[in-house]
Amino acid sequence: MRCVGNTAGAHLPVNKKCHCLSRVTPDSISVITDVLVSEENLGAGAEDLEWFEAAEVLLTEQVKAVSGKLMQKVNTGVYGPLQLAYISTGDGIAGLAELPDQQPIAEAEELHSDLLPARYEGGLKIWECTHDLASFLACHPTFSMRGKKVLDVGCGAGLLGLLALSQGASDVHFQDYNVSVLTSVTMQNVLLNTTENTATRCRYFAGDWQSYVQLTDDEFKSEEAKFDYILSSETIYNPSNHTKLYSVFRKRLKRTGIVFLAAKTYYFGVGGSIRQFEKLVEEDGVFESSVCWKCSEGKKEITLIVKSVFKSRDGYSSRFILGAGV
Ligand SMILES: C[S@@+](CC[C@H](N)C(=O)[O-])C[C@H]1O[C@@H](n2cnc3c(N)ncnc32)[C@H](O)[C@@H]1O
């Protein structure tokens, strides 16, 4: 079931965007604790929806054939010492006609929507927290991914998984809801940034998180098979999906592993919030979490990066540490 890459290699960037962490503010965490979640905003009503089943998606010759077209226009993100090339959303959509499972994306495009619950979940666009988490990781060598197994959950363009790959991760699994996001954007970005050899360290999984956990259950029975790092950005916007996402963390992380979750404090119009997710984690009592970075730009929104690790076996600490540095 392994995918095969090609030798796409490096391409000259058209745009170069620098994402640095200089805008970190040491504000008190209390700024963000009072956000209320209104019932009517719980919006998506995920329980009533039919979610796509999970499947492994292979990087086929058909997917590679599209890459030639997309690579005409490439952006480059700069994260600390690392640079990653990525195609823009528009270019991704342009490639879709030739690839399978394009219908949900076409519907979203027609409606000019970033989100069609359980049809298209927003992976074509690169969301801000991805850049924040990529910068955070690139600037903290303590969390180097060299030789590590990494899962990028709700990966969209896959920049976090790509960062792990470029740091020398041994295995990177990219998971996204829509097959077409994986084939038209994620895989294309992997092809852009890697050699054939490196690309063979990647696997791709589409479908709903609940079904993804079921699909991969046999493979992840042993501790050794699990991930050293699970990375996720902007995936908590829909509160109805929190338990599914949390179960990916719970069931796929090694005892010694770390989850990095980057998210906005509150998702207006959809209802998810970091507070709700933290509560879920806290109530389960298995992880110890801390906010290890935050940013408030123009006081519009706050991005948090939450780091979760399994509690030590003797239950050493049950505190939820906020605002702590790493
Ligand atoms: C807002 S996008 C963020 C994409 C990317 N992580 C970023 O920051 O640019 C949310 C991502 O989570 C995935 N997602 C949302 N709900 C999901 C679900 N129930 N099962 C699987 N993936 C889901 C979507 O496919 C999408 O890629």
From TrEMBL:
Pfam families, alphabetized: Methyltransf_16
Alphabetical UniProt keywords: Cytoplasm, Methyltransferase, Nucleus, S-adenosyl-L-methionine, Transferase
Domain of life: Eukaryota
Enzyme class: transferase
Annotated localization: Cytoplasm; Nucleus
Source species of the chain: Dryococelus australis
Residues of the signal peptide: none
Family according to the record: Belongs to the methyltransferase superfamily. METTL18 family.
Protein's recorded name: protein-histidine N-methyltransferase
Gene3D superfamilies, per database record: Vaccinia Virus protein VP39
Assigned EC number: 2.1.1.85
